[in-house]
Each structure stands twice: as C-alpha cells, then as structure tokens.
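Course exercise 7: structure representation. Students receive a sequence record and must write out the corresponding structure in token form. The form below is the worked example handed out in class, using Adenine DNA glycosylase (350 residues). Read each field label carefully; the graders check that inputs and outputs are placed in the correct fields and that the protein name is recorded exactly as given.

STUDENT ID: A-19
EXERCISE PROTEIN: Adenine DNA glycosylase
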Amino acid sequence: MDFSKTLINWYLKSKRDLPWRKTSDPYNIWLSEIMLQQTRIEQGLPYYLKFVEEFPSVFDLADASQDNVMKLWQGLGYYSRARNLHETAKYVAYQLDGIFPKDYKGLLKLKGVGDYTASAIASISYNEPVAVVDGNVYRVLSRYFDIATPINSTEGVKEFKALAMELLDKEDPSAFNQALMEFGALQCKPKNPLCDSCPFNTSCLALKENKIGDLPVKIKKGKIKNRYFNYLVFSSEENKTLLQQRKGKGIWNGLYEFPLIETTSDIQESGLIEENKEFQELVLDINASISLYNDRPVIHKLSHQHIHARFWLVEAENLPRIGVSVEKVKEYPVPVLIQNFLNEIDIENL
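STUDENT ANSWER:
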C-alpha cells in the first residue's frame, strides 16, 4: 500500500471546508497555525475569522495595540502565543517589508515559530518538502507503525520527525501534511477512532495487535499545583474600580485583573486581612467595607495548575489610587476567569 497516496485520496474526499485551506498566503497560514496550537479547530475558527476581519494584513496586525490584540485573543488561552504573534507581525511588517521568510530555516527564526509551525508554513505556502509533526501526526504514526517511544521524549521527537519525513510526498508536501493532520483529527481520533471505515485498517499494526487504546505513549506530567487567588473588586462613589496589568513570566502576562492577594490556602475574611498587612492598613485608610461575593471558590483549571479564586467586594468612598470607570472595564483584555465573573455580576451597579 502506498501510504501517502492512500492518505491524500482520503483527504480529498473527507477534508473539512476551512478558510485557511483556500489560500497559500503565508500570513493566513501563520495566523491559523499559531491559533490552532493546542486548540481544537472548532474553538479556534471564530478567533481566526475575527482576526482576519480586524487585521486583514500583517501590517494591520503590526499597527494594532497590544491591548487590542489581547482582547481579541481573550478566551483562547496560552496568551504568550498572542504576544509572540504581535511581536512577529511587527518584525515582518517593519523589518521585512511585510514579506515572510520563504523557507523553513528562515521561518524558524521568527518569534513563536517552532519546528511544527515553520514546517506547516513552508510546505503549505511554498511547497517545501518538510514534514509537520503535531499531536494528530504522533497519534496516527504511533498507531499505524506500533511505536511505543514516548512522543514527548527527545528520542520520540526525533524518531517521529524522521518517520514523517520518510513518508512525506515530496511532490505535494502541502496536501500530505494537511492530510495527515486531518486524518488524525477526523479518523484516527484519540478516543473512539473510526477503525471500521479506516483505509488503513488492513495494515495498521496497532489495530492488528489490539493496541489502539495504548498509543501514543506519553510521559506523565508533574503534579498539578494549587493556587489560591483573592481578587479585590473595589467600587467607589465615583463609580470607579481598580485594575492592574499582570507582568512577568507567569500566567496571563499582559492581561488585566482586579488587585490580587495570593494566599497559601483558601481563607475567610479575617484571614485575608491578617495575611496582608498592607491591605489591612488600606481598608482602614479608606474606611472600606468588605464582603465575599462567592462562598465557594471558583476553580479554574490550567494545564499545570488549578486556580481557586474568590472575589471580594470592597466598597469605599474613595479609591487608594487612580481608578478605571466601571463602564470601561469590559473593554480591557482579561483572563477567562475574570471575564466569567464580569458576565455574572452587574459591575456597573456594584
């Protein structure tokens, strides 16, 4: 059986109608690939459509403010992707006159672009014979060839990349790469793969050995970290509140949030004040009253940590620093955790 021909034939009959498949423009391909990293197409598609409408060219994206980019990205997660997207757009627009590098090695030098994204753009936009390897590809190849090497190990990354390159249709790398990824998404799914209708069901080694559910193999991640966030939702007689922008290398860098006190465990009001002397003095200075909005913490799960969040309503005549009009709060890019709170509460009438 010719693996690549069988795969591409399946793709031509079964592929989904997606907007980035109607163009080879590297801007659109780059945008879609960055957005779809660790994101399902169903979730990423609306964001892609919003971005190409708001920023039809790399110049439009480069000229946008970071806050505008982050606001449009809000809810898609892994926000470093949005920051890198914006930085790369500025580099391509201002340093490369809007022209993306035309080969794999050049693309790999762009911020936020790794082996997978560089391979995808190079093959789809420029027909360069480089293989893509993403989660779907790992799954298909590990099952078809019955490979138990962990896909998140150094050895596994090299082995699967080499295998994908060996199988690659050198005459039509664009179709082959897209076909292999689409096959993993629609046919060789993580759970309940469609083996009965699979064009490879007579040659798939994992199916033959009844090992479909065991592959691919992945080294287990470390222990999940629990963090306890206490957000202080200030309100004043001037109908203003306080927001601050997250900085540094931690989660949600560049997004806005209410003033935050992080504690080592879930605490009540007395504990909140006792654990933070600065907040204790502030409450006294502005003669504020405090009430807990949610009796049970909201648990927001990230890939490596779980956030246990409480929202504390802090009412005062005056704010300790220059505030933000509550009418403007919803214009700021915020984490989904904060957005869900804003959707639930009437922030303008606190």
